[in-house]
Amino acid sequence: MNKNSSNPTVSILLPVYNGQAYLQEMLESIASQNLTDFELIVVDDGSTDRSWDLLTSWMSGHALSVRRLRKPVNLGVCAALVDASRLARGRYIAQIGQDDVWAPDHLSALCAALDNNPDASAAFAGVTYIDAQSKPMVATVFNHGRIDEDGHETLLAKLTAGNFLCAPASMFRREFFDISYWGASNERLQDYELWLNLLLHGRFVFTKQITCSYRLHNNNLSSGSQMRLQSEYELLMTLMRVLMSSRFEHFYAGLNNDSDRRIKFVRALDHSLTMVTDYCSGIAMLHAAVLERISMWETERLQEVNAMRIRTVRALGLLRKALALRKVSSAHLLRDNSGVPYLVPAHDALSPLVTALIEEGCFQDGAHIDFSSVDLPYLYACSETQVEQLKSYDSFLSATHEHRVVVFDTEKTGDHPCGFGIAADQHLDHGLMDKLFKFMEERHRSFYQARPMIG
Questions:
Q1: For labelling, which of 53, 57, 165, 297 has a CA lying 20 to 30 Å from the CA of 198?
Q2: pLDDT tens sequence across 115-163
Q3: Model's pTM, two decimal places?
Q4: Mode of pairing for the β-strands spanning 364-365 and 65-71
Q5: Does domain 342-448 bear CATH number 3.40.50?
Q6: Hey, what CATH topology would domain 10-224 get?
Q7: pLDDT the model gives residue 62
Q8: 3-state helix/strand/coil string of the chain
């Protein structure tokens, strides 16, 4: 290999931090590649062990094109990848972790995949797993089969619910890459942010050849529940940077000639963002913002996008916002009333408005749910004449103190000592719904707060 080659086919990025235990095995797997036109870019990120000395000794015995950067302090893997990729000159870029291992045909297989698919922004190989002693393990961490199963847009949408792609099993085109794609000090999700950005440029391909051994041990940055809060923060920031970018707008515009394709993508994106709302509560607001942004671009299928927006803003407790959107949306699209509290009839002699409010989607029917065994938000419904009698029941009395009663046949519509009153001559219209939703927003916003984050 020409150690001074300025136009290698592949640039290999290798961030190292206290990796002396596995460096030898990993470096030997690089040296054994049957594609030899590559450069190796090593960034030692302030190691305090013998990593630098081992790198120096090993490289002195191998005729490889290597560039090294030694940082005086540890600044994290994201900063190391940024530094390494600034130096990259190859047509393609590959990454490897200091403890992972490549088969000899790894680079050649991925190069062939990209050469044969000029519209692809990245290629992925199959992954096997090894333990700390380099012995095979049975595990499922990544799922590259989804690349073929889901297709380009669906893969992007599903990836917003979390990463399932392996960095050391990947290769991407440098022409589609920008330094910002690693994120900002992104210590947990830098590769994940890279995938999302690259998918905005082109599809991914999967070689099916198993050429990467990914090591699983207690020191994996991605293992267990380490740095949970930081992961939540980085997920939110990553999705914000990607989904609110001009690149995302350009990607959506590229689907302009096929409305079915666009709506399939939006539905998949909507579903994925809903899935991660429980993981990170801030994503609920981003979810609503992304759908609103899409509604500004969509012309043919706007009502379908608005139906998704209604459910999303309603889940945030923005009931009057949802009501405004409903005025311009087709009723047959508004079937989903998830996030809406239940209305429990406290007796039989109730106004027909109870049924109407449920059918209109203001409440869900709580008539046959045992709320003593499930934790769901609900209000009672009763007539004005039954209030005092029902207060003999502890659960109803508690509801009156918490203003969780919708009282029918009152003198006027509006605030009531027990909750919200609806006058006897009141008809169901947007005026009533606006007043009711204002009451819900002001009195019962807790119904719409995100559920506790899972851990």
A1: 297
A2: 999 999 999 999 999 999 999 999 999 999 999 998 899 999 999 999 9
A3: 0.84
A4: unpaired
A5: yes
A6: Spore Coat Polysaccharide Biosynthesis Protein SpsA; Chain A (3.90.550)
A7: 85
A8: CCCCCCCCCEEEEEEECCCCCCHHHHHHHHHCCCCCCEEEEEEEECCCCCHHHHHHHHHHCCCCEEEEEEECCCCCHHHHHHHHHHCCCCCEEEECCCCCEECCCHHHHHHHHHHCCCCEEEEEEEEEEECCCCCEECCCCCCCHHHHHHCHHHHHHHHCCCCCCCHHHEEEEHHHCCHHHHCCCCCCCHHHHHHHHHHCCCEEEEEEEEEEEEECCCCCCCCCCCCHHHHHHHHHHHHHHHHCCHHHHHHHHCCCCCHHHHHHHHHHHHHHHHHHCCCCCHHHHHHHHHHHHHHHHCCCCHHHHHHHHHHHHHHCCCHHHHHHHHCCCCHHHCCCCCCCCEEEECCCCCCCHHHHHHHCCCCEECCCCCCCCCCCCEEEEEEHHHHHHHCCCHHHHHHHHCCCEEEEEECCCEEECCEEEEECCCCCCHHHHHHHHHHHHHHCHHHHCCCCCCC
